[in-house]
Design a protein that fits this description.
The structure holds two protein chains of two kinds.
Chain A: E1 4-20, H1 27-36, E2 43-58, E3 62-66, H2 73-80, E4 88-93, E5 97-100, H3 113-123, H4 128-142, H5 157-169, E6 175-179, H6 187-202, E7 206-210, H7 214-220, E8 223-228, E9 231-236, H8 238-256, E10 270-275, E11 279-280, E12 286-292, E13 303-309, E14 315-320, E15 334-340, E16 348-357, E17 361-373
Parallel strand pairs in A: 3-7, 3-8, 5-6, 6-7, 11-17
Antiparallel strand pairs in A: 1-2, 1-4, 8-9, 10-12, 12-15, 13-14, 13-16, 16-17
Helix pairs in contact in A: 3-4, 3-5, 4-5
Chain B: E1 9-12, E2 27-31, H1 42-47, H2 49-66, H3 71-92, H4 102-123, H5 126-129, H6 131-134, H7 143-170, H8 181-205, H9 209-223, H10 235-242, H11 245-258, H12 265-290, H13 293-296
Antiparallel strand pairs in B: 1-2
Classes of the chains: A alpha/beta, B mainly alpha.
Chain lengths: ~400, ~300
């Protein structure tokens, strides 16, 4: 053993999907099926959630794991934390591993805060002595000391989350696997949590962190893995992994233009999505034209929802036609025009997702269109970059002053 | 180092010089794909005993916190069943209960029976009702069904104390065999946990176990001599009854509590062998299926 915290080689995880033929749900059915075909081996279609994953993480590293939905990020964490077993390959862990895959593991509403600290702590892998030693610090961190003997079902959701996270934050395992639990609580609590996580890595322990949020990966991690369809496509610096992640949107969009490859029932498909211009000024109205095909057999009306996402895949705006009374008739092809007014976008590249829905999703076209927002400032004064950097969008605002003298 | 497939093994890290004081010196965990058969890893279960303790505490707290009558319920249940049995079997069917009153005879039978059936019926659905945990955090899953025994044992203890009070009231002195009660309790718990482990693991995959099991238990209640003596069984069926380990269980327990005629020695040894065997086999089956729980639950 060298000084590696986690060493993974040839790791694979397959799920059986869509059993070929028939799938029993009860013992009686299973027995009947077995009696009818005693020698038939059941065949399954295989889905490889992880495929030949190999990497090593040294001690003291905080590794971000990024990738699109379904790339295998969460599966990887689940295999490493032994929640689920691998199908192939081998994992070696150089120490105890603690997993924070959700907030409030094992919390029970009827139990008091105190009882829940012990229950949840034990489930996360803490020994009784550890919990007792850390008890005051946990209570302190959560700020719920007044309600320690109240059942947590009477807690406000904020208190609940704070207590739950406080327990998790005091987990002292040498390796820590985290799945986006930082995305809870108010801003102050989030930054507190983030600081706590950073301390973990400073102690020489190792953090594995799965996230969709680019900012937290950049803030927390020292290196990153980019996963695509269960395979490692990049392992190295955070910037490199994020670069791969961003690029994946483009190649994904190309694949999505083929309607047969898109998710959704397919009862009705969008045939074309266009933005009126390739680039907009931040303040301009953004116009999206959506052509939807026809299906005379479809009963009732459908609606359309359009998402505008920034480069990091975060949905900046959801324009759902139901909000403005937009219901359309599937009997004839429709040419829809969506005008997004009063959305001041920051300069950068944006993608548009289009969803055609009725009771379920008929067509889900992610990355249907791309547009650029030009790097011009919509404000009357030039104040330099740092006056524009923070924030996800720009806004129309003004200051007035009344001297109170 | 060689590793048997299907196991997660711990080995001491073989490092010439420790680089850091804390990380890296602990045991190395190796995770491999599951194999065909897995042996229970008792050391890991022991390591996580705190979880067992907290689960047991949770079960007990919840049971007594949410009920109005609380402990009373634990007593009402066997008392009423014993009452009904003594009316139906003792009065209506007019069966003999040997030299003890029918009521205390069936009460003691119910004590042993409730310990057995309570553990089985509570262990079986335990994994499914804790599925949020199973799919979100790792700990030896065996602890979930095992911990259910705690609250059943507490119920047993309460009704056992009442049983002793009844013995005193009826003026029955069982003599030294009562000292063997803890042994029978342990064996009954092992037997029922063995069945409970298999049932809980099966239920992860097949939910109908949850319907079949209570029905089976109900049938067994009448098929085993809980409310009647083995002597009341027709001679032609006697062999069948004598082959049932539950008969041994009830006979042994009753002998210890009521001081009636001692069952043959082979029943005592046989029951111990069956209880231990079923428990170990149950644990092994559970361990073998354990690693796919999170995927199918």
């Amino acid at each position: 053993m060298s000084g590696t915290a986690v060493s993974v080689s040839g790791l694979g995880k397959s799920y059986r999907v869509g059993r070929v033929g028939y799938r029993p749900n009860t013992i009686v059915e299973a027995l009947k099926e077995r009696a009818r075909h005693p020698f038939r081996r059941t065949r399954f279609e295989e889905f490889r959630a992880l495929d030949d994953v190999t990497f090593e993480v040294p001690w003291g590293e905080a590794v971000g794991i990024v990738g699109r939905n379904g790339a295998g990020k969460s599966t990887l964490l689940k295999v490493l934390t032994r929640i689920t077993a691998p199908t192939r390959g081998r994992v070696e862990l150089g120490g105890r591993i603690g997993s924070l895959l959700e907030v409030g593991t094992g919390f029970h509403g009827e139990l008091t805060g105190r009882e829940n600290i012990f229950l949840s702590g034990a489930l996360l892998g803490m020994r009784r002595k550890e919990i007792q030693r850390q008890f005051d610090s946990i209570v302190d961190f959560s700020g719920v000391e007044k309600f320690l003997d109240t059942p947590v079902k009477r807690y406000s959701s904020g208190m609940y989350v704070r207590l739950a996270f406080a327990v998790a934050a005091h987990l002292e395992t040498e390796i820590l696997a985290i799945d986006e639990v930082l995305a809870v609580g108010d801003a102050e609590f989030q930054s507190k949590s983030l600081a706590k996580m950073r301390d973990v890595a400073k102690d020489g322990r190792t953090v594995l962190y799965v996230s969709h949020q680019m900012q937290t990966v950049t803030a927390l991690c020292t290196s990153a893995i980019y996963l695509e369809r269960g395979q490692i496509k990049y392992y190295g610096g955070v910037d490199g992994a994020l670069e791969h992640y961003r690029k994946s949107f483009a190649s994904f969009a190309a694949a999505q233009s083929d309607p047969t490859k898109r998710p959704g029932t397919g009862a009705l498909r969008a045939t074309a999505v266009r933005v009126s211009e390739e680039s907009f000024e931040p303040v301009e109205d953004k116009i999206v034209e959506i052509d939807v095909g026809a299906n005379p057999e479809l009963l009732g009306q459908y609606f359309v929802s359009c998402h505008v996402n920034d480069e990091n895949g975060i949905v900046v705006a959801q324009c759902d036609s139901r909000n403005v009374g937009g219901w359309f008739d599937p009997a004839t092809p429709q040419e829809l025009t969506l005008t997004i007014r009063a959305l001041w976008l920051k300069p950068g590249r944006y993608t548009v997702d289009v969803f055609v829905c009725k009771t379920g999703i008929l067509d889900s076209w992610e990355g249907a269109a791309v547009f650029e927002v030009l790097p011009t400032s919509p404000y009357p004064e030039l104040a330099g970059d740092e006056a524009l950097r923070a924030g996800m969008v720009l806004s129309d605002y003004g200051y007035e002053s009344r001297s109170s003298a | 180092m060689t590793y048997a497939s299907g196991n997660v093994r711990h080995a001491r890290g073989k490092r010439a010089e420790p680089l850091r004081s804390k990380p890296g010196n602990g045991p190395v965990t190796v995770i491999l794909p599951p194999g065909r058969l897995a042996l229970p890893r008792w050391s890991e279960v022991w390591e996580a005993r705190e979880v067992l303790y907290r689960f047991a505490q949770r079960d007990i707290l919840l049971r007594y916190r949410q009920t109005v009558v609380g402990v009373a319920w634990v007593l009402i249940q066997p008392l009423f069943s014993a009452g009904i049995f003594s009316i139906v079997f003792g009065q209506v069917a007019n069966l003999s209960s040997g030299d003890v009153p029918y009521f205390i005879f069936s009460y003691v039978g119910m004590l042993a029976w409730n310990l057995f059936s309570g553990t089985v019926t509570r262990a079986a659905p335990s994994l499914v009702s804790n599925q949020a945990l199973v799919s979100k955090v790792f700990f030896p899953r065996m602890l979930v069904p095992l911990s259910t025994a705690a609250s059943v044992l507490l119920d047993f203890l309460v009704s056992f104390v009442l049983g002793v009070v009844l013995l005193v009231l009826y003026g029955i002195n069982p003599g030294w065999p009562i000292l063997l009660v803890p042994v029978w309790v342990l064996l009954i718990v092992l037997l029922s946990l063995g069945i409970g482990l298999v049932a809980s693991a099966l239920m992860v995959r097949y939910r109908d176990v949850g319907y079949i099991l209570p029905w089976l238990i109900q049938i067994l209640l009448y098929a085993a001599p809980v409310a009647y003596t083995v002597d009341a069984v027709p001679e032609s069926l006697r062999g069948l009854f004598d082959a049932n380990p539950l008969t041994w269980m009830l006979e042994l327990f009753r002998w210890s509590m009521l001081g009636q005629q001692a069952p043959p020695l082979w029943q005592g040894l046989g029951f111990a062998a069956v209880a231990l065997g079923v428990f170990y086999a149950g644990a092994m089956a559970f361990q073998t299926w354990e690693r796919e729980f999170a995927d199918v639950i």
